[in-house]
Amino acid sequence: MAEELYVNAQGSKAARYQALLPQLKGLLEGEPDLVANLANLTAALKQSFDWLWVGFYLVKNEQLVLGPFQGPIACTRIAYGKGVCGTAWKEAKTQLVPDVAAFPGHIACSSDSRSEIVIPILVNQNVVAVLDIDSAQLAEFDTTDQAYLEEIAALVGKCFLSA
After folding, report:
1. How far is it, in rounded angstroms, from Cα 160 to Cα 163?
2. Which tens digits make up the pLDDT trace of 86-127?
3. All domains of the chain, ordered by start, with CATH?
């Protein structure tokens, strides 16, 4: 396990993800505890990109329940199909939202959030959690983020299998 995170702050967004991915794999390697892995992933993403909020919501009893996160206090439970997270769960598809104010039914856990990306975590074709990332900037996220975060979500899915 890595004890330090190397952040490539000068590189392009893609270069930053490329530097981060092997480090994330190293964090997860050999650690069977799901909460520990999710906590380290949120910290690594927050440290690497300094987004407003990075965290997981876990599917429990037909709702999304707040899991490990970094950032301001968040909504604790989200219903199926509600808000950006609930929509990602319902559609089992990444939600890329350049302006949260324009998203029908957006749940404002923080008034500082301006854009958001939510990636479903799939295990055997079922959504078991979502990775939710908010930014204080409009249109912070793009298809580069989506591609790399979906790759990270696939790593996270393996954590659920071994938990």
Report:
1. 5
2. 999 999 999 999 999 999 888 878 789 999 999 999 999 999
3. 13-162 (3.30.450.40)
